[in-house]
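Lab manual, section 2.4: Encoding a predicted structure.

Procedure: take the sequence of the chain (276 residues), apply the prediction step described in section 2.3, and record the output as structure tokens. A sample record is shown.
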Amino acid sequence: MSAARRLDPVLLLAAPAVLYLAIVYGLPLLFLLGRSLFGAGGLASFGSFFADPFSWIVLGNTLRSAALVTLVCLVIGYPTALVLARAGGLVQAAILVAIILPLSVGVVVKAFAWQIVLRRDGIVSQIMTGIGLWSEPQRLLFTETGLVIGAANIFVPFMILPIYSVLKLVDPRLGEAAATLGASPVYRFFKVALPLSLPGIVTGIAFVFSMAASMYVIPSLVIGDRFQTLATLTGRSFLFMRNEQLGSTTAVVLLALTVAIVVASSWLSRRLGGAS
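Recorded output:
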């Protein structure tokens, strides 16, 4: 049998997509890596970057904001996914539409909408003042709190859907069996539902954290230049500072960070899947 006939048909079907990804994404990444490694500064640019205290502030801002956004999305997303997995009929369809429909709205539109919501006379300030938590209207716009709120609203579907896809496969009779053995609802959650849903949690955390760490439009519009992250510093280096070497260096650092997150989450998901 010839080598052509031994090829898996699935590989042949995937070849156009792989070629497209290699041209559209692979070549620019190779150019970026070459620019950062073999440009004017070469490897010394990474040493200069990590030797600058401001770079560590930027890296800390990136990791902290991404972690906070991921935590908020997990706190909101897990109960929503749990309700979605247990709902049925029209209720499940309505929740899915409420989750998926906002994804059709562009990130720029959402970011501008949060500018209106988070300003001093916005609805959030009015509600907090009305229920007595704030003595006077306050501005959440151009603050890290406002950034976390706006980003979590945009990324929460990417936390809900992976967890829901795993919870949907869990046999509901497992919880019923645990209940007949005298297990309390809290015990059933921590010993049955939560361990079985860990692969979905890990996947959702990887999705949200990687997107939150590399977000550019949301912090640019919601918090501005006063709060620099790796993504905003990369864009500023290319667009305003005209420092391509710095932009390439920060982009590679951000790329390495996100790739490490995805690889670690994939490894952990396989381990959890094998353990279960």
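Check your result against the sample. The domain at 54-275 is CATH 1.10.3720.10 (MetI-like fold).
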